[in-house]
Write a structure and sequence with these properties.
Layout (H helix, E strand, L loop, with lengths): L15 E3 L2 E6 L5 E3 H14 L4 E3 L5 E6 L3 H11 L14 E3 L12 H12 L13 E4 L12 E5 L4 E6 L2 E6 H18 L13 H9 L17 E3 L2 E5 L4 E2 L1 H10 L2 E4 L4 E5 L4 H5 L13 E3 L13 H8 L9 E5 L12 E7 L2 E4 L2 E3 L3
Parallel strand pairs: 6-7, 7-8, 16-17, 17-18
Antiparallel strand pairs: 1-2, 2-5, 3-14, 4-5, 4-13, 8-9, 9-10, 11-12, 12-15, 14-15, 18-19, 19-20
Helix pairs in contact: 1-2, 1-6, 3-4, 4-5
Length: about 375
């Protein structure tokens, strides 16, 4: 992988300068937020940014349109709220965990994700990981198998987990699981070139990493499951945030009715089961049948200088007419297709005089 640019993946301290101002990405390892932390983020977005919280495809949150003096104030607030435990590691705390874990009798991997985050921040050398390097801890249901993690840990039973890198895997005990994940990350730093940001970009990367771990990989493959869908899941409720853009009113509603919040990589949140009326009243989605569950979009105009259209406004306007063939629909303002889903999807791409839908011209809507 021959890149000429440096890793510019944004964080809280390394803010990306977009057309609408600074863009800060707040890592939420394991997706778990307290109500107090969500309130801190809500107020920060209202007072320092454009008032919205963006949910990303990696279960993180973004604040857009930060004013010039916003990043310093934001970092102070997040540090006080426990959302910025290590300044050196703030961009590398990319850890997904199964959002329903521990709520339906499966092995609870949230403590593993939290232990991984703490151990990662305690390793100074791992602050050198690229901002796109991704860990995933799956509780065995397979919901995270296809999120594109560099290193996937999937529960097998109460004693063992499957450590997966690319197409290779090996079993590890839960006692050694966190150490194995960190060792894989450290091995990646040893085998990569500076411009290789993901294990998949390293020639024979998975094999070389397993060799350094002293593990002999086998052919056992992880379970492949489905993403969490909106609706009731036992004692929990999954709630889709349309286009992943959480408004002030929606954030307030969540803080008023939920005891905790888990952010998912599907631009939704999981909360304890509550009455849905206050949620739907502010535009949140609580049923699997809503078309919003299958629609995503990049920032588009006016936030992104590269975008050729206000794709979010167009997506909202065209929602009733979008294809409903079971595939996700992703709206992109330019050919970079930021935020696109993993796997097959309907590709709606802005061009100078309208859109291409799966490569076919469509009149401007």
């Amino acid at each position: 992988m021959a890149r000429t640019e440096s890793d510019r993946c944004p964080g809280v301290l390394a803010v990306h300068q977009a057309a609408d101002g600074g863009l800060a990405r707040v890592r939420v390892p394991g997706g778990l937020l307290s109500v107090t932390q969500l309130e801190v983020l809500r107020l920060a977005s209202a007072e320092l940014g454009d008032g919205r919280l963006e949910l990303t495809s990696r279960g993180n949150l973004q604040i857009r349109a930060l004013r010039p003096d916003g990043p310093r104030e934001l970092s102070d607030r997040l540090f006080a709220a426990g959302l910025l435990p290590s300044l050196e590691h703030e961009r590398v705390r990319n850890i997904l965990a199964s959002p329903l874990s521990g709520l339906d009798g499966r092995y609870d991997v949230l403590p593993v994700a939290q232990a991984l985050d703490q151990a990662l921040c305690a390793r100074p050398e791992l602050a050198a990981l690229p901002g796109r390097f991704l860990f995933a801890v799956d509780d065995g249901r397979g919901d995270l198998t296809q999120v594109g993690a560099d290193v996937l840990l999937q529960a097998v039973d109460d004693s063992e987990a499957l450590l997966c890198i690319g197409a290779l895997s090996a079993r590890v005990t839960w006692e050694n699981a966190v150490d194995a994940l960190l060792a894989a990350a450290a091995a990646f730093l040893q085998v990569r070139d500076a411009q290789e940001w993901r294990i998949a970009e390293v020639a024979d990367g998975a094999q070389r990493i397993f060799e350094r771990l002293g593990l002999r990989p086998g052919s056992e493959q992880p379970v492949v499951g489905l993403p969490v869908t909106a609706g009731a899941h036992g004692s929990a409720l999954a709630v889709t945030v349309p286009l992943g853009s959480l408004t002030q009113e929606q954030a307030v509603t969540l803080t008023e009715h939920a005891a905790w919040i888990r952010v998912t990589p599907w631009r939704s949140v999981v909360i304890p089961t509550v009455g849905v009326e206050p949620l739907t009243a502010v535009g949140l989605v609580t049923t699997a049948e809503s078309p919003w569950n299958a629609v995503t979009a990049c920032a588009g105009r006016p936030g992104c200088a590269k975008a050729l259209a206000d794709v979010r406004a167009d997506a909202r306007r065209m929602l009733p007419r979008l294809p409903r063939d079971g595939r996700r629909v992703h709206w992109s303002g330019c050919e970079r297709r930021c935020g696109k889903p993993v796997g097959d999807f309907v590709d709606v791409l802005a061009v100078g005089n309208g859109y291409l839908v799966d490569g076919e011209p469509r009149e401007k809507w």
